[in-house]
């Protein structure tokens, strides 16, 4: 029964994240085509209960705006980060052997336990991510919080 419940919770978490990765609207697609304004990126340092630091890249304007509001204290809504991990180092986050996919990044108040893990725990178990550990590669560190924005790299 517990195993079945965990699978159901895992599938629900993946389903929630699937909404974040839905096909872009026509306006978003036009913005990425040549001749239209380039999509900008922003980088933020997050930490968690372990006090380790991890850099996330954001590309969606609404996420960048929300992240800046979190860092400045303008909002406390949806303070935690959820995203799909990519199992390789990113130039902006060289200390870790994984990074988050900016196209799947969202913010949340509460999430399913199946995707909760600290930064170092993900690092220590990254080879197992995508199976029972972080199903669908969805990571939602419940204690995550943004602490500052850093210059574009």
Please sum up the structure shown:
The protein is α+β, with helices and mostly antiparallel strands. Helix content is 29%, strand content 24%. It has one domain (2-22, 43-150).
What does the model show?
The chain has 153 residues and is an alpha+beta fold. The chain has one domain. Helices cover 29% and strands 24% of the residues. The strands form 3 sheets. Strands 3, 4, 5 and 8 form a 4-stranded antiparallel sheet that branches. A 3-stranded antiparallel sheet has the order 2-1-9, with helices on one face. It has a two-stranded parallel sheet with strand order 6-7. Strand 1 and strand 2 (53-58) form a beta hairpin. The longest helix is centred in the N-terminal third of the chain and has 19 residues, at 2-20. The N and C termini lie far apart (47 Å).
């Amino acid at each position: 029964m517990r195993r079945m419940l965990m699978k159901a919770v895992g599938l629900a978490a993946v389903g929630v994240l699937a909404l974040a990765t839905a096909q872009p609207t026509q306006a978003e697609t036009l913005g990425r085509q040549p001749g239209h304004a380039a999509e900008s990126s922003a980088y933020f340092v997050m930490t968690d209960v372990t006090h380790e630091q991890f850099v996330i890249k954001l590309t969606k304007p609404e996420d960048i705006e929300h992240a800046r509001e979190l860092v400045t204290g303008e909002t406390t809504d949806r303070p935690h980060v959820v995203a799909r991990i990519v199992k390789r180092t990113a130039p902006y986050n060289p200390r870790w052997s994984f990074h988050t996919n900016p196209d799947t990044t969202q913010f949340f108040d509460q999430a399913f336990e199946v995707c909760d893990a600290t930064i170092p725990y993900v690092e220590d178990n990254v080879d197992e991510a995508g199976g029972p550990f972080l199903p669908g590669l969805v990571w939602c560190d419940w204690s995550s919080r943004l602490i500052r924005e850093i210059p574009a790299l």
